[in-house]
Task: structure prediction
Amino acid sequence: MKPPVAILHAPGTNRDLDIALALEVAGAAPEIVHINRLLACERRLSDYAMLVIPGGFSYGDDLGAGKLWAVRLRHDLGAQIDAFARSGKPILGICNGFQVLVKTGLLPDPAAGVQSLTLTRNTSARFECRWVYLEPNRQNPSPWLRGLERIFCPVAHGEGNFQVDEAGTLQRLQRNHQIAFTYVDSGGQPGPYPVNPNGSVADIAGITDPQGHILGLMPHPENHILPHQHPGFHRSCRLGSGLRLFQNGVAMIR
Result:
């Protein structure tokens, strides 16, 4: 039996099928679940082994990217969300999903339950759609990162600028090894724009919770899981697939 994975859907999300394909290739049985089905009790989060919140522009990003979806989840499904997080089942949020995890308080620490960081407007003041390199943090022990090499994948966001409420928050993320990915160049070195496409503090592209079960990141590894998706495929460029990330997630629930 392939483990069941819930991919949440709300008005405006648009990466559902991309993530479903990535999870199918990785060996899971994904199901795209509209939030209204949860609200109507047709589905429960406890029915699934993993939860994924995909990218897009949920509710038109009114009041800020991911804000209304976060409010809806926290207000109407807070008990289910908290129970899922406490269970230790893996949770993944990509792009808009990362913004939702941050604004529900699930990241950086669901036990704290407060928002101590945000993803705000890119310093370029425009929507950034480009391919970037992600360097996994070797000190982060999360199963999501096991055996990962540098990932090459696209970003597509206007509000991906990772910022913290105070210096102490960044220090805790660094001390607890919660930083999952940083933006680097092709040689693995940090750099200014466009290497860091949005101005994120410390070049942070993604983080985990302290236990490593919850992962959020802005770039889209689900859009580079097959060799021909690489923009240099016809020039024999094949490195940087994001598939291993999804395989790691599925390995956590087998």
In short: Residues 142 and 212 are 4 Å apart (CA to CA). The longest strand covers residues 128-136. The mean pLDDT is 97. The chain has one domain: 4-251.
